[in-house]
Design a protein that fits this description.
Length: 182
């Protein structure tokens, strides 16, 4: 009868070059840092916020320098992200507005239905984005839903009905140059 004996084989340890040792040490440190961060996330975030608060000027300078150096690649990444996340961006924006103005998604949807899905001013459906929630800046009361053009226009006139009437009169009269040039 044959008996199998397991041989112990001595394997010579692999000798690393100095460069390989440096890379291994760096990788080990990175793993340790990631582990620490995972276990102490709140503590790390608090430390980072404190650092950023006390180094605002240096952080701003570094950010600007980094942006200038990497502008093209940052713009390209941003463009790609926005292209791939249109729905997510609109949902985030809408949820921010809904939270800000204290209404629910259902209330927003019912406002869209009441307005037949069109802007309260120009009566056109929104071109790319959804309808924005328009509100009185003094009282915070919601007035209705506007397309982005009308919303920007009202904001440009600082929510002043008087300025809007003046603008309408100006357009209806053909401006003021007719009177000056005659």
């Amino acid at each position: 009868m044959t008996k199998w004996v397991k041989e112990t084989v001595w394997i010579e340890p692999i000798k690393l070059t100095e460069e390989e040792k440096r890379i291994k040490k760096k990788a080990d440190n990175l793993l340790a840092v990631k582990k620490y961060y995972k276990e102490n996330t709140e503590k790390c975030l608090a430390r980072r916020r404190k650092y950023l608060e006390s180094h605002k000027k240096q952080t701003a300078e570094y950010s600007l320098m980094y942006y200038k150096k990497n502008r093209e690649s940052l713009l390209e990444k941003n463009k790609v992200w926005h292209k791939n996340h249109k729905k997510e961006r609109n949902e985030r924006r809408l949820s921010y507005e809904i939270e800000t103005y204290g209404i629910t998604q259902e209330e927003y949807n019912s406002m869209v239905l009441i307005q037949n899905g069109v802007c309260a001013i120009c009566k056109l459906p929104p071109s790319k984005k959804r309808l924005s929630i328009d509100h009185n800046h003094e009282t915070g009361k919601i007035r209705g839903l506007l397309c982005s053009r009308c919303n920007l226009a009202i904001g440009g006139f600082r929510d002043s009905a008087q300025l809007l009437r003046e603008a309408a009169n100006y357009i209806e009269k053909g401006g003021i140059l007719d009177k000056i040039l005659i």
